[in-house]
Write a structure and sequence with these properties.
Elements lengths: L11 H6 L1 H4 L6 E3 L7 E8 L5 E8 L2 E3 L4 E6 L3 E6 L2 H23 L2 E5 L4 H4 L8 H4 L5 E5 L1 E3 L9 H8 L20 H17 L4 E2 L6 E2 L2 E4 L24 E4 L9 E4 L1 H4 L4 E6 L5 H8 L18 E7 L7
Parallel strand pairs: 6-16, 7-8, 7-12, 12-15, 15-16
Antiparallel strand pairs: 1-4, 2-3, 5-6, 9-14, 10-11, 13-14
């Protein structure tokens, strides 16, 4: 793979001979390779030391050794952050969520968060530690699930149980602000019931509405991804990935057990203001490459269909990003 060119709008000789820059501490850089160019009109490099860097232009990808993450932005694919470890990823994810929660809670008094299952909950663990456990205004949080398995809430396969054990039971979110599914209903009934709940909360102003699509607009959807590229309970090749009218739908033949589930549809997922896609492990490197690389395959994976009208940020560890 060829590195994309680094072009500065100011000649390098003039840039680094300036008096102000000579006084700054030296921060080593090394080139990093990416599967295709990342285009910026103007970019300001900001290091973890708090030093503001130089304005530059061109197509490039960089690595600042002073920072724990590589970052790039590409139109249509969102912002991509690659971390040396899952530990570093979880630290950055907690700060991202906490900062967003603080901003939106102050602006509108609520913060609507959609959780998924799998390894995502483990990556939220830093939120239940200082400083966030004490500084976050948990009373504004309204919590939902992007998908759920049709099992009792105390079942090992329950996304509710996973979230409760690893996150919700450790933070002071109000009991009435966590909206789980009715697991006593059959799959179709549970999907209809959850959609009815969402519509009531939209009517009452708890959940916003997208002016572009008319679907509910959540503040943030926290998504994981499976090794096959599925998100929520939307699987490759399944007819549900084409559902464009319902808010919540059901599946009885999931290729991954348990077979019966309910799930948000893509119109709801993509109407959100922010999506964080959290992916760790070498076993998921292939779908990450398909989503962020130069894939010419016309059969899109579900993860490639994630395209919010707001902001998309990928949180990847270096193993998940190993094929980029």
């Amino acid at each position: 793979m060829a590195c994309s060119p680094l072009k500065f709008s100011t000649p390098l000789r003039s840039l680094f001979s300036s008096t102000s820059l000579r006084r700054l501490p030296r921060i080593p850089f090394q080139s990093s390779r990416f599967s295709q160019p990342v285009t910026h009109k103007t970019l300001t490099l900001t290091f973890s030391t708090g030093i503001r860097g130089v304005s530059c232009s061109g197509s490039f990808f960089w690595r600042a050794k002073a920072s724990m993450a590589d970052t790039s932005t590409e139109k249509g694919k969102g912002k991509v952050e690659v971390f040396d470890s899952e530990e570093d990823l979880s630290v950055s994810l907690a700060k991202y969520i906490a900062d967003l929660a603080d901003k939106l809670s102050k602006e509108k008094g609520t913060f609507t968060v959609v959780l998924s299952g799998g390894s995502l909950i483990k990556s939220l663990r830093k939120l239940v530690e200082p400083p966030y456990i004490d500084s976050v205004d948990w009373s504004t949080w309204q919590v939902f699930w992007v998908d759920e398995r049709l099992v009792p809430k105390d079942h090992v396969d329950s996304n509710y149980k996973l979230a409760f054990d690893g996150f919700l039971s450790k933070v002071p979110i109000l009991p009435g602000h966590a909206y789980s599914i009715n697991d006593a209903l059959p799959a179709e009934g549970a999907a209809d019931d959850y959609e009815t709940c969402l519509k009531h909360l939209v009517t009452s102003g708890v959940i916003g509405t997208s002016t572009a699509t008319g679907f509910p607009k959540f503040d943030i959807v926290l998504l994981g991804m499976g090794p096959d590229g599925h998100v929520a309970s939307l699987f490759p090749g399944h007819s549900l990935i084409k559902e464009n009218e319902k808010w919540v739908t059901f599946i009885k033949d999931s290729p991954k057990p348990p077979p019966e589930r309910i799930t948000f549809t893509f119109p709801v997922i993509n109407s959100s203001a922010h999506i964080a896609l959290v992916v760790c492990g070498a076993g998921k490197a292939v779908p990450v490459q398909a989503a962020l690389g130069n894939s010419q395959n016309s059969n899109l994976l579900p993860v490639q269909m994630v395209s919010p009208e707001g902001e998309l940020v990928w949180f990847l560890d270096k193993d998940a990003a190993s094929k980029l």
